[in-house]
Structures are given as structure tokens and as C-alpha cells.
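ok, trying the design again with the full structure, not the truncated one.
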């Protein structure tokens, strides 16, 4: 059984759209019993709320049902977060996210550092962490890497990797979306690509 979790801030717009688009793709591929798809939030303020009305309308225009959705928060089960790496000398995100995510889950955070290299062949096995103050590096083993890079596409750490099967770019990580319609199209294309991979 393959498991996919889409995550965004509130679980009322982006991640549920990705969830229901992916479910529709999997349904059409007739492999619903092989893939389990969910979505969740990193924050708690929208918990219990339904999907954002414009998102629901957009999905309905494509014939994709999303009834019954209620926002819920992502919980870490059976996983260990090694670290959050921050290139600034202070936390760069929203204060509420620091308290509700970093502190709530007891996740270690390292400041003034960045990832200079990603290691792995059939899948990621670790990263090289660069200390931006001293210039020293150290190897950090991990099985998954999640990046938040803002609105400016940046692929520096993955240069030289070629095109490994486990590496995917989507959203602003790939290129800046000026309109939400293109972001939705990009999400749909990502879903179709993942569906092909999951179904062989």
C-alpha cells in the first residue's frame, strides 16, 4: 500500500485540492486499493472547517467531488524529524508556526546553515549541511527532505544529481506562478506523474 500525505498551512485549500485531484486520478487509473491519500495542516486554526469555497468551486468545475472534508492537523507518527535548517540567525517563519510546530513537536532547529549537497541514488540517504558562519560542513543522514524556499526558484543543492526518480519539483520551487490557475494546472500535472509512477 502506497501512502501519500499532502500538507499545507490550513488544510482548507491547497492540500485538500491536491488530495482530491490525486484521488480522482487514482480512481480513473483503477488502483484505489493500492494507494491511500490524505491531506492535513501544519497549523491548528482551521481544524474542523470545510474546504475553502473557491477551491471547492474550482474542483467542481472539473467534476471532482470533495464533500465531507474537514481540516485536520498533521501529526508525526512513526517518523523522526532530524532538524529544521534556517539560513538566517533567527526563525524566518511565522511566530505561531514556531510555537505550534517546532516547539510543539520538539523539533531541533539549526540557524545560519544551509544544504550544500543532497546524497542518494535510488532514494535520498542524507544531506551535507553547510555552516554559513564557519564554512564547515557535516553530513546529516535522512530519508526525506522537505524544502521551503519562498517565491524564488532555487535548485542549487540538487545540481549534479541528474534526474533521480525520488526527486520532484512543483509549485514555486520549479517556477513562479503568477496566477492560481497555473498553480492548479501544475498540481494536476504533478498528480498525474505520481499516479503513473505509483501504478507502474
Amino acid at each position: 500500500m502506497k501512502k501519500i500525505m499532502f500538507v499545507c498551512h490550513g488544510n482548507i485549500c491547497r492540500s485538500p485540492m491536491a488530495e482530491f485531484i490525486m484521488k480522482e486520478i487514482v480512481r480513473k487509473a483503477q488502483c484505489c486499493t493500492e494507494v491511500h491519500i490524505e491531506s492535513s495542516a501544519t497549523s491548528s486554526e482551521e481544524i474542523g472547517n470545510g474546504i475553502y469555497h473557491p477551491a471547492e468551486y474550482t474542483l467542481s468545475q472539473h467534476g471532482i467531488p470533495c464533500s465531507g472534508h474537514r481540516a485536520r492537523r498533521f501529526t508525526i507518527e512513526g517518523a523522526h524529524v532530524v532538524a529544521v535548517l534556517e539560513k538566517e540567525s533567527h526563525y524566518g517563519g511565522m511566530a505561531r508556526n514556531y510555537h505550534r510546530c517546532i516547539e510543539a513537536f520538539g523539533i531541533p532547529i539549526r540557524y545560519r546553515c544551509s544544504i550544500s549537497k543532497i546524497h542518494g541514488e535510488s532514494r535520498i540517504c542524507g544531506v551535507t549541511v553547510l555552516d554559513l558562519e564557519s564554512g564547515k560542513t557535516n553530513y546529516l543522514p535522512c530519508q526525506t527532505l522537505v524544502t521551503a524556499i519562498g517565491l524564488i526558484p532555487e535548485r542549487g543543492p540538487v545540481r549534479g544529481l541528474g534526474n533521480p526518480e525520488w526527486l520532484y519539483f512543483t509549485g514555486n520551487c520549479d517556477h513562479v506562478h503568477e496566477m492560481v490557475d497555473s498553480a492548479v494546472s501544475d498540481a494536476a500535472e504533478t498528480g498525474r506523474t505520481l499516479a503513473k509512477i505509483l501504478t507502474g
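Keeping the full-length input from now on. The longest strand covers residues 113-120.
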